[in-house]
């Protein structure tokens, strides 16, 4: 009898716990997922300034190289090796970026099935627009990541070529053109990503307003824009 009573009490406790967990409204649950997605992009945000600094350093190295003549080949080789180390560091940081964005995406997509459960029509419409733009933002980042990764590979190939004493000017010029063209793709992809980020920030604020969520939006913005790689 004591066992049955204990079981009954435990059952009541579990039911009470489940009721408490399900007590949050749909808009509040969506809010929680959105803010968790923000937190998961923290690593992404932290990579921005270091990447820009590495890009500036690499440009300085490149400028030093083009100012040298072939009679200073050993110095060119040494600088080229430094540039490759720089590229490897940037590659590590964009991989951290991607992991962060991927984790954010996995969290964000959890709201998709909740949107239809929103009672307010304007909140539901706002959430649908917000979801669509954020999905485009993740796609834009994927294109940016691919373009940047391709550029890093081309840059690494360039500095490997510069360590060859018999390198022909025609071959070098052709490869530099490839690097520059690739960077243009990075700039275009970066612009699209930043535009989608700005759009999402605005739509998120609209959703919070429509859903009656009282939040300091400045402290809950999704993610800052990615620094330009020009």
From TrEMBL:
Top-level taxonomic group: Bacteria
Transit peptide recorded as keyword: no
Leader peptide range in chain numbering: 1-24
Entry keywords, A to Z: Coiled coil, Lipoprotein, Signal
Keyword Transmembrane: no
InterPro entries: Lipoprot_YkyA-like, YkyA-like_sf
Pfam families: YkyA
Coiled-coil annotated residue ranges, if any: 70-121
Protein name: Putative cell-wall binding lipoprotein
Upper lineage: Bacteria, Bacillati, Bacillota, Bacilli, Bacillales
């Amino acid at each position: 009898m004591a066992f049955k009573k204990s079981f009954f009490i435990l059952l009541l406790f579990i039911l009470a716990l489940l009721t408490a967990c399900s007590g949050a409204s749909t808009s509040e649950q969506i809010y929680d997922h959105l803010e968790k997605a923000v937190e998961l992009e923290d690593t992404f945000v932290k990579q921005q300034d270091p990447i820009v600094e590495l890009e500036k350093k690499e440009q300085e190295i490149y400028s030093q190289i083009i100012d040298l003549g072939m009679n200073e080949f050993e110095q060119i080789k040494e600088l080229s090796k430094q540039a490759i180390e720089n590229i490897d560091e940037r590659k590590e940081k964009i991989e951290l970026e991607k992991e962060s964005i991927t984790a954010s995406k996995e969290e964000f997509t959890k709201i998709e099935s909740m949107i239809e459960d929103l009672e307010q029509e304007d909140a539901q419409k706002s959430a649908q627009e917000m979801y669509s733009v954020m999905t485009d933002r993740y796609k834009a980042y994927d294109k940016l990541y691919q373009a940047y990764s391709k550029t890093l590979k081309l840059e690494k190939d360039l500095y490997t070529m510069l360590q060859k004493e018999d390198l022909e000017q025609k071959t070098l010029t052709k490869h530099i053109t490839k690097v520059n063209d690739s960077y243009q793709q990075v700039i275009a992809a970066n612009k699209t990503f930043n535009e989608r980020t700005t759009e999402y920030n605005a739509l998120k604020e609209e959703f919070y307003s429509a859903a009656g969520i009282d939040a300091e939006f400045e402290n809950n913005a999704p993610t800052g824009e990615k620094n330009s790689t020009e």
